[in-house]
């Protein structure tokens, strides 16, 4: 196995930069640069030198094989946060036989060493990408092993049930005691219900991880762009009195009380002979139809009436000019907070029953396991035993114990170098 290294902190100037080295030669390389290292998991102030060239003075810490994030011998250099210092130490490490890590390679080694299951890896990736509090909480749960522990509990029940059935097959001439048969049925049913509950909550959990889209929809000059600017509290969309100013979709990504929401300012929907505006309107209509929620600004365009969904909101703008009761004003801010509260409550209701599975790969494994468990009723003992074995196999896929090679490149490529 190669020894790899990378800067674990963001590149650039800062108070401290950390370079992590992992692999069989990590300790040798570090001692050539700093002298003998002390006890593992203790930090030591050391002069870091490449021959006669003193690179820096910093904190050096080592971790033994089997007691590190990657599961390998690891050394960390905590340096002054100057890019020139980092680059000089990297050259010294390269010259001693290590190579630069690929994106996600440290985490890949943690997975390969058994320190993390694949669900935890995906949770860690989600945590690094989290933008809101709700996303953080979900990612912390999964990266901390919550989904893996749930799966292990399911497997324990299925293994125990399978063992009882195997005993029944081995002693086919004897009657299966009623209490044993009831225990088998109870375990299978408990797992089936729990798996199906996680599968049912997947759409909401996946949406929480990816974020919601809220489209502002209406006729030209209805006030959509001004409303987007008021929500963002800065000028994002161009606002003029000329109809058709917005021709393409303008997006604003927000943290709405912990929920990740992207607001879409769409082109005003109307009949037009302008080719470019027409393309923008078609795109806006399609994006609005696929959004999680639509806020209709002003009168609903006639060709959108049939696409209004439960939960969609209707508002009027320019309240400062019209004096209309309940109208929102993008100029004074009147009604903006109320509108955002209504959007939040609607979206929060949709994720009120989130689970732990938030990736399509995880949902596929859950679906396959649920299908096997749904077929156990009314079959001979041998058939039931085979369905339990297959269900257990799919649950192993969920946490990456088997049949995951096709997913590894996709999962780990999302990590930055150094993680």
Notable features of this structure?
419 residues, alpha/beta, Gyrase A, domain 2, Four Helix Bundle (Hemerythrin (Met), subunit A), Rossmann fold, 3 domains, 6-stranded mixed β-sheet, 14 helices
At a glance:
With 419 residues, this protein is an alpha/beta fold. The chain is 46% helix and 17% strand.
Q: What is the H-and-E element order?
A: EEHEEEHEHHHHHEHEEHEEHHHHH
Summarize the main sheet. 6 strands, mixed
Compute the average pLDDT: 86
Corresponding CATH architecture of the largest domain: Up-down Bundle
Discrete helix count: 14
Overall helicity: 40-55%
Relative strand content: 15-25%
Describe this structure in words.
There is one protein chain. The protein has helices at residues 26-34, 83-94, 105-112, 118-129, 133-143, 146-170, 178-210, 224-232, 275-290, 319-322, 336-350, 360-373, 381-398, 405-412, and strands at residues 4-7, 14-22, 43-50, 53-63, 74-81, 99-100, 212-218, 250-256, 259-265, 293-297, 313-315. The chain has 419 residues and is of the alpha/beta class. The chain folds into 3 domains: 4-101, Probable tRNA modification gtpase trme, domain 1 (Gyrase A, domain 2); 118-208 and 359-412, Up-down Bundle (Four Helix Bundle (Hemerythrin (Met), subunit A)), CATH 1.20.120.430; 211-350, P-loop containing nucleotide triphosphate hydrolases (Rossmann fold, 3-Layer(aba) Sandwich), CATH 3.40.50.300. Strand 3 and strand 4 form a beta hairpin. Helix 4 (118-129) packs antiparallel against helix 5 (133-143) and helix 6 runs antiparallel to helix 13. The protein is flat, with a radius of gyration of 29 Å. It starts with a strand and ends in a 7-residue tail after the last helix.
């Amino acid at each position: 196995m190669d020894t790899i290294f990378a800067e674990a902190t963001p590149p650039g100037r800062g108070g401290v930069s950390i370079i992590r080295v992992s692999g069989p030669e990590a300790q040798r390389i570090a001692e050539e640069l700093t002298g003998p290292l002390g006890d593992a998991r203790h930090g030591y102030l050391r002069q870091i030198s490449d021959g006669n060239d003193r690179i820096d003075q910093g904190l050096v810490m080592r971790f033994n094989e089997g007691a590190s994030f990657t599961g390998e011998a690891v050394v960390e250099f905590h340096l002054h946060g100057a890019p020139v210092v980092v680059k000089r130490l990297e050259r010294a490490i390269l010259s001693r036989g290590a190579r630069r890590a690929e994106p996600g390679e440290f985490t890949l080694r943690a997975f390969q060493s058994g320190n993390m299951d694949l669900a935890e890896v995906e949770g860690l990736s989600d945590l690094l990408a989290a933008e809101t509090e709700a996303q953080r909480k979900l990612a912390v749960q999964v990266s901390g092993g919550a989904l893996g522990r749930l799966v292990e509990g399911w497997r324990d029940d299925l293994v125990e049930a399978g063992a009882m059935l195997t005993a029944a097959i081995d002693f086919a001439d004897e009657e299966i005691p009623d209490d044993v048969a009831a225990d088998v049925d109870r375990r299978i049913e408990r797992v089936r219900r729990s798996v199906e509950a996680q599968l049912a909550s997947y759409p909401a959990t996946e949406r929480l991880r990816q974020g919601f889209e809220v489209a502002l929809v209406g006729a030209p000059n209805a006030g959509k762009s001004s409303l987007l600017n008021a929500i963002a509290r800065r000028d994002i969309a161009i606002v003029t009195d000329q109809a058709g100013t917005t021709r393409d979709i303008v997006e604003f990504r927000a943290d709405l009380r912990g929920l990740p929401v992207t607001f879409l300012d769409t082109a005003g929907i109307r009949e037009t002979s302008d080719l470019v505006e027409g393309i923008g309107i078609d795109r806006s209509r399609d994006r609005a139809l696929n959004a999680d929620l639509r806020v209709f600004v002003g009168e609903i365009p006639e060709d959108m009436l049939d696409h209004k969904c439960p939960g969609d909101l209707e508002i009027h703008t320019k309240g400062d000019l019209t004096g209309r009761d309940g109208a929102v004003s993008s100029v004074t801010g009147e009604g903006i907070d109320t509108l955002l509260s209504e959007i939040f409550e609607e979206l929060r209701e949709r994720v009120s029953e989130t689970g732990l599975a938030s990736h399509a790969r995880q949902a596929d494994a859950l679906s396959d396991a649920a299908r096997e468990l749904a077929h156990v009723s009314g079959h001979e003992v041998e058939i039931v035993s085979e369905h339990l074995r297959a269900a257990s196999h799919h649950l192993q896929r969920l946490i990456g114990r088997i049949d995951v090679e096709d997913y590894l490149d996709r999962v780990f490529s999302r990590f930055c170098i150094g993680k």
